[in-house]
């Protein structure tokens, strides 16, 4: 989904919003380069670099018993390799899953990064709202996003909202983001520093960051940030961080299929 608006300059924008306060039809602003304010309902995750194979788990585990010779054995017996990885996962012998690395480029709303960065066993570098002007890209829940929460804390169920609730969320989000971005632009145009002007921007504005993890730390993220019936310890994450985690899981499963299968088979518990 993408959305947006007509092009005007900063002064016209200010006039438009003033007029709107007086009861005129709203006119949504653009950024100074003329780009439209954009609304998205997705989270993008791109694997930009990796050194991550099931073989990395095996040689790390086999050094205990075979030393350097273990490197020669890695591809030798696929069934035995799968068995060993499953054993390591089941017995929570976790350190062999650390000898690998995946770097993701994540483009997501700031409220997703706020949750993601609670995962301390990862490395982050995020774009700066002090050193660059933030782009007018905002998250608004898509039509399939369940809107209504039922149940007690920790065991929430989410059910679809009514068409009216969906329309309300979309309208309110678009309106508030558009107005906030116009305020941001007015302050920048008046010479206010980016680090001050940004304080009016909502958490639904997109940010971007590189996130580097190893398979063990990623499994910890997946165990907590995805909701699966087969999980031995169920978790109930916010849907938007789950969307990010699902994309990371797809990439990891492609790189390390045996490790991913063992994670799945053993209740999605990080070893
Ligand atoms: C559904 C859900 C709801 C949540 N709600 C809230 C909330 O309401 N408020 C809130 O503040 N947070 C909340 N969190 C965040 C949560 O408490 C964790 O901070 C977050 O999930 C990161 O998990 P972690 O510490 O295992 O990850 P990491 O920081 O990546 O740590 C990985 C593992 O390393 C070990 N470890 C890391 N650091 C330490 C340490 N200092 N001491 C001992 N062991 C360590 C632990 O075994 C840990 O599991 C929520 C998380 C989820 C999934």
What does this entry look like structurally?
The protein is α+β, with helices and mostly antiparallel strands and 271 residues long. It folds into two domains: 10-45 and 123-208, no CATH class; 53-103 and 212-265, no CATH class. Helix content is 43%, strand content 15%. The protein has ten helices and eight strands. It has helices at 10-21, 54-66, 70-73, 78-90, 110-116, 163-189, 194-197, 215-225, 239-255, 257-265, and strands at residues 38-40, 44-51, 101-109, 123-126, 137-139, 148-150, 157-159, 206-213. Strands 2-3-8-4 form a four-stranded antiparallel beta sheet. A two-stranded parallel ribbon has the order 1-5. A hairpin with a 6-residue loop joins strand 6 (148-150) and strand 7 (157-159). Helix 2 packs across helix 4 and helix 8 packs antiparallel against helix 9. The longest helix has 27 residues, at 163-189. The radius of gyration is 23 Å and the shape is globular. The protein starts with 9 loop residues before the first helix and ends in a 6-residue tail after the last helix. The structure holds flavin-adenine dinucleotide. The site of flavin-adenine dinucleotide has 11 residues, from helix 8. Flavin-adenine dinucleotide (FAD) binds at residues 118-121, 217, 220, 224-225, 235-237. DUMP binds at residues 115-118, 126-130, 198, 225. Its cofactor is FAD.
């Amino acid at each position: 989904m993408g959305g947006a608006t007509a092009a005007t300059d900063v002064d016209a924008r200010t006039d438009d919003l003033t007029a709107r306060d007086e009861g005129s039809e709203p006119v949504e602003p653009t950024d100074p380069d003329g780009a439209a304010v954009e609304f998205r309902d997705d989270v993008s995750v791109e694997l930009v670099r990796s050194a991550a194979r099931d073989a990395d788990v095996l040689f790390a585990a086999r050094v205990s018993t075979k030393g350097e010779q273990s490197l020669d054995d890695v591809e030798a017996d696929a069934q035995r390799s799968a068995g060993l990885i499953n054993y390591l996962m089941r017995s929570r012998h976790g350190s062999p899953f650390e000898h690998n690395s995946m770097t993701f480029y994540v483009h997501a709303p700031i409220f997703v990064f706020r949750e993601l960065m609670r995962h301390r066993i990862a490395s982050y570098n995020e774009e700066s709202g002090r050193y660059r002007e933030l782009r007018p890209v905002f998250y608004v829940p898509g039509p399939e996003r369940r809107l209504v929460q039922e149940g007690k804390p920790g065991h929430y169920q989410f059910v679809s909202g009514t068409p009216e609730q969906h329309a309300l969320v979309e309208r309110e989000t678009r309106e508030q983001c558009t107005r906030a971005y116009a305020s941001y632009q007015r302050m920048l145009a008046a010479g206010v520093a980016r680090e001050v002007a940004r304080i009016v921007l909502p958490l639904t504005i997109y940010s971007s960051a590189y996130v580097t993890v190893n398979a063990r730390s990623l499994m910890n993220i997946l165990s907590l940030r995805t909701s699966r019936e087969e999980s031995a310890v169920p978790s109930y994450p916010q849907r938007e961080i789950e969307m990010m985690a699902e994309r990371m899981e797809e990439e990891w499963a492609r790189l390390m299929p045996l490790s991913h299968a063992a994670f799945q088979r053993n209740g999605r518990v990080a070893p």
